[in-house]
Amino acid sequence: MDELAIDGGPKAAEALSIPEWPQPTDTSRAYLLEAFEGGNWCRGPWIERLEDEFAAYHDAKHAIAVSNGTVAIELALRAVGVEPGDEVIVPSYSFIASASVVPAVGAIPRFADTDPETFNIDPDSVREQITDDTVGIIGVHFAGYPIDMDELLPIVEEHDLFLIEDAAHAQGSEWRGQKVGTFGDFGTFSFQESKSLPSGEGGIVVTDNDVLAERARVMQNIGRSQGETGYRHYKLSSNSRMSAFQAAVAIGQLEKLPEENDRREANEKLLLAELEEIDGIHTKPRDDRITARGYCLENVRYDAEAFGGLSRDRFIEAVRAEGVPVYDGYEVPIYKQPAFFRDQVRRLLPPGTDVPDYWNLHLPGAERLCRENVAYSHPVLLADDEGIRTIPAAIRKVKAHADELRER
Ligand SMILES: Cc1ncc(COP(=O)(O)O)c(C=O)c1O
Questions:
Q1: What stretch(es) of the chain map to CATH 3.40.640.10?
Q2: Which pLDDT does position 229 carry in this prediction?
Q3: Which of 199, 286, 314, 362 could be bridged to 246 by S-S, CB 3.0 to 4.6 A?
Q4: Domain ranges in the chain with CATH number 3.90.1150.10
Q5: Which InterPro entries does this one have (predicted)?
Q6: Residue 251: count of CB within 10 angstroms of its CB
Q7: Residue 395 φ/ψ, nearest 5 degrees
C-alpha cells in the first residue's frame, strides 16, 4: 500500500488537473475591451445584451442585471413588497446572504431546517415555521441541486406566499425541464468570481411577472421610471445597477457555460458512480426530475464512523494532501453567525418586534451538515476523465490508512 501523501508518499490524485478559475477567455477579454472603448460604461447595450441573453438561457421573460447576488435577493424582497415586521422563511444552511437580506429590509427571518440528503430547505420544516405573519420563502438551490419543487410549490400556493429562489449556485439547473429561478416570483443569481458564470462581482434577477419586473427595474435604478436617466425619482430606493464592464465579461462567460455544465454533469456522474460505492461517503440522491444541473460546488456527507473514527478535519487534510481540493464548507448554520445575535437583528426591525432567539435555535439537519459536509468546487468537475477517477482513488487510499491517521 502506497504511503500517504501527507507523510511524503506519492499523490493518488497527481493526474487531477483543475482549470484555473475564473477563466480570462479571449471572448470576455474582447468584449471587455469593446465596452471600455465603446463609451457606455454604465447602462446601455452591454447590459441589455446580458439581460436578453441570460433571460433566454434561463427561460425567463425578464432579467435585470444588478451589482451582486446579495442585492439581487434584497431587490427581489423589496419588489415583492415585503414590509417591516413581516416574516420570511429562510434557509439555515447556506451563505449568509440567503437570510441576512431579510432583516436588511426590516423583516424577520424564520429559519427552516435543511434536508441532509439534498442540502436544500426542508419542506416539512418550512410548514412548521409558517405563522399568520409569514409572507414568503427564500429557498436556495444549494450547490446547484434544485429544491424539490413538487414539495415546495404546494406550500407556497396553499399559504399564498411569495417565493424567491436564490439560484446563486444554480446557473443552468433545471427541474422537470424548467430552468430554476422561474418557479417563484423571482430567481436571483450571483456572478461573483467563484461562481460558474463569473463577472468579478455581479448578479441578476429573473421573473416572468411583468409587474414585478417593472418594480424591480425602478428600484434597481434609484427610483427612476423604466428607461429614464434624468432626475425624476418615483420610489425611494437604492442603486443596484451593474456596470457595462461586468456585463461584457459575463456575456463572454455565458457563451461557454452550457458546454461546461454538460462536462461537469458527465464528470459528476462518473464520480458519483464510484463515490456511491465507498462506505461512509454519502452522496446526494439521483433524481430524474433534475433534468439539468448547474454547479457552484458539490457536496457529500462524511461518516467518520465508517472511516474508523477518523475525524472529518483529518480526513480532509489527508485527501487534500493527495491532490484533491476538498473543504468543509460552513462551520455554523446561518442562525449561529455572530451577525444573528439578537441585538444586532433587533436594531434593524421595527421597535418592539419580538425577535426570535436565533442563538438558542437548534436545527438538526443544518447542524449535521456543518459537521459532515465535504465539498469540492465546480472547476474540479472540469478535469478530464482520468483526473476525475483519481478522486475516489484518493479517498479509498485515505480510508485504507484511516486507523494509523486517527491514532496520531
Ligand atoms: C447561496 C448564495 N446566495 C447569495 C450569494 C451572494 O452573492 P454575492 O457574493 O454575489 O453577493 C452567495 C454568494 O456566495 C451565495 O452563495
A1: 26-253
A2: 85
A3: 199
A4: 5-21+256-330+368-406
A5: DegT/StrS_aminotransferase, PyrdxlP-dep_Trfase, PyrdxlP-dep_Trfase_major, PyrdxlP-dep_Trfase_small
A6: 23
A7: -65, -40
Q: Which three cell numbers stand for residue 345?
A: 437583528
Residues with CB under 6 A from ligand 1: 68-70, 94-95, 97-98, 140, 166, 168-169, 190, 192, 203
Q: Other C-beta atoms within 10 Å of 112: how many? A: 27
Q: Which of 11, 49, 169, 284 is catalytic?
A: 169
Residues in the chain: 408
Report the pLDDT averaged over residues 173-181.
98
Catalytic-residue membership of 169:
yes
Quick one: pLDDT band at residue 227, thresholds 50, 70, 90?
confident
> What's the CATH superfamily of 5-21+256-330+368-406?
Aspartate Aminotransferase, domain 1 (3.90.1150.10)
**Portion of the chain with pLDDT greater than 90, in percent:** 98
Residues 68-127: pLDDT tens digits?
Answer: 999 999 999 999 999 999 999 999 999 999 999 999 999 999 999 999 999 999 999 999
166 among known catalytic residues: yes
47 burial via Cβ count (<10 Å: 0-12, 13-18, 19+)? buried
**What average pLDDT does range 147-159 have in this prediction?**
98
Q: Do 383 and 264 contact (CB within 8 A), yes or no? A: no
Of 110, 179, 241, 312, which is the active-site residue? 241
For the residues of 48-112, what is the DSSP string, one character each? Answer: HHHHHHHHHHTT-SEEEEES-HHHHHHHHHHHHT--TT-EEEEESSS-THHHHHHHHTTPEEEEE
Q: What is the pLDDT of residues 359-379, one digit of tens each?
A: 999 999 999 999 999 999 999
Residue 15 predicted with pLDDT over 90: yes
Ligand 1 atom showing the smallest separation from residue 203 Cα? 10
Q: Which three cell numbers stand for residue 293?
A: 444541473
CA distance 28 to 3: 44
Cα angle 293, 294, 299 (rounded to 5 degrees) comes to 85
What is 26-253's CATH number, 2.60.120.10, 3.40.50.800, 3.40.50.150, 3.40.640.10?
Answer: 3.40.640.10
Residue from 100, 186, 192 whose mutation best tests the ligand 1 pocket (most atoms within 8 A of CB): 192
